[in-house]
Amino acid sequence: MKLNFGPRLLYSLAALVWLVSSCNPAPPNLPSSGPADIRRDATVEAVEKVIPSVVNIATSTDFNKHRVNIGPYRYEIRTPSGEKLNSIGSGVILEQVGDEVYILTNLHVVSDATRIHVQLADGEVYEAQQLALKFKKDLALLKIRVKAGSTPLHGVRFAGDEDLMLGETVIAVGNAFGLGGSVSRGILSSKNRRPASGDSQLDISDWLQTDADINPGNSGGPLINLNGEVIGMNVAASENKEGPGLRFAIPVTQISSALSDFFTLEFTSDLWLGATFRGTRLPLTVRFVQKGSPADRAGLKPGQEVLEVNGKAITGLVKFNSLVAGSTDLRARFTVLDGGRRRELEATLVPLIELLRETLYGRLGLKTEKLTATNSAGLILKPNEGLMVGEVQEKSPGAAVGLQTGFVIVGVDGLPLTKLADVAQTLGNKKPGVPVTLSLLVPQVGGGNVVGYQTATATLQAR
């Protein structure tokens, strides 16, 4: 059967085609972006977010015989005299303030080290200072000072304290076997694996368990989720002859607690504020307030969100401490969010040395003076290493044990006076009647002049 179309019908069809094409014009001749790269999945993107904030760590010692710490294992190594590498590990950048960069790693990575070397993702190597340790949490805080004008470094982003999903994909990042940055992938096998009693070197109440490979050198590196957030710190591997063994990480909730303790004004700046803050995420939230402290008197309360200090925004816990410590006349102004309402609070900070002197007088009856060039003649001590007794109150605990003017206090209950925060807390928390042991330097007099000092201890009853 043959179909014949007349001229009018053909004209109508041509007009219809023109109308449709004019309503739906062809796209301009632009260069094609090409198909999406199927290799760039969530794992790749998560690694790209965190890898610039992961560092390699090597430690060294000057001893001919020393212990090598790799993961939870220790090995005895004998080397020729001189400084030798004795440990490898990883760490994560927390925050940069000015030219100072704060880094978190495992304690066992840097224990017994005389020098600590940190290599950044760009290959630059810096010597690190060890600032603080948490033995029961196996965590250590380090600090490096980067070159002026260096590209700013960014800290890792932490997950919420309880933001864990059993079976979710996790990635272990670190310096495996000292070969440089490496990654391995697995799942979160357990959110609270408890090691058998007495079978662990670490006192961690709840470990994360994963089947992602954690090898020697991974210790101190992050275990992250697919958002690129740190959910734990790689710490140990338990080998098993019957299978591949188990891999563990310190959970983020333990890390958050440790950072709250590390970054207190009492520890970082020898100033008494009396508050701790959640240390891993913004907004900065008040965790604890000491009764009767400057923070308490200012109106700070647990649960409040601190938005600004002295009118400046907070970028993290390190920056918060820096802003508070730099307050004019020791007066810090806080802008907080309290129950959804903005409030302005002001705290007057107290230098810890002054707090300790007040406590020594109130609890032991000892009026003390700071060491100066005049009153410390013959002492090889720095001004912050001791307090000289200037007066002993009658019928006080100090008088009862025969303490005298001119004695120098250098420690309390075995703690050196340089650890002001620990000393002040230890002495201040003593209940009446509880013994206090003072480490002293007692002047030796000859010919009417002080000719030297002798070490001594005295045990007093706190009042």
What does the model show?
With 463 residues, the protein is an alpha+beta fold. It folds into 4 domains: 53-145, Beta Barrel (Thrombin, subunit H); 157-194 and 202-254, Thrombin, subunit H; 263-348, PDZ domain (Pdz3 Domain, Roll); 351-461, PDZ domain (Pdz3 Domain, Roll). The protein is 19% helix and 41% strand. It has helices at residues 7-23, 42-50, 107-110, 252-262, 265-269, 294-298, 317-325, 352-364, 397-400, 420-428; strands spanning 54-61, 65-70, 73-78, 84-97, 100-106, 115-119, 125-134, 139-145, 157-158, 169-174, 182-193, 207-210, 222-224, 229-240, 243-251, 271-272, 275-277, 284-289, 305-309, 312-313, 331-338, 341-348, 350-351, 366-370, 387-392, 408-412, 415-416, 435-446, 449-461. A hairpin with a 2-residue loop joins strand 2 (65-70) and strand 3. Helix 8 runs parallel beside helix 10 (420-428). The longest helix is centred in the first third of the chain and has 17 residues, at 7-23. The chain starts with 6 loop residues before the first helix and ends with a strand. Mean pLDDT is 86; it is low at 1-26, 65-80 and 196-204.
